[in-house]
Amino acid sequence: MPDASIEIESILRRELSPTVLEVVDFSAEHAGHSGNPTSSKRGTHIRVRIACSSFQGKSLLEQHRSVYSLLDPFLKKKGIHALELKTEEA
Predict the structure, then answer these.
(1) Which of 11, 29, 79, 87 is deepest in the core (most CB within 10 A)?
(2) Phi-psi region of 57 (alpha: psi -120 to 50; beta: other; left: phi over 0)
(3) What is the per-residue pLDDT across 29-43, written as a single tens digit (0 to 9) for each?
């Protein structure tokens, strides 16, 4: 089964064609915390930086909603505790 960060990157590349996309799994930084009680080093905390042309003229809230609408089913299915998101116009 592919790593959660790889799957997230694939979804965002396919759906938004970003000019900039960085997906980092920082789960290990939260080992033992309530969102990562099993001390998993992968798949509980993901950081995304994304820029794409479809964000042009949209507020930051609208940009984040665009990303969350694509990722929400995946995040729930995988049990991802935290998604840190930074969006930018391309």
Answers:
(1) 87
(2) left
(3) 655 565 545 555 567
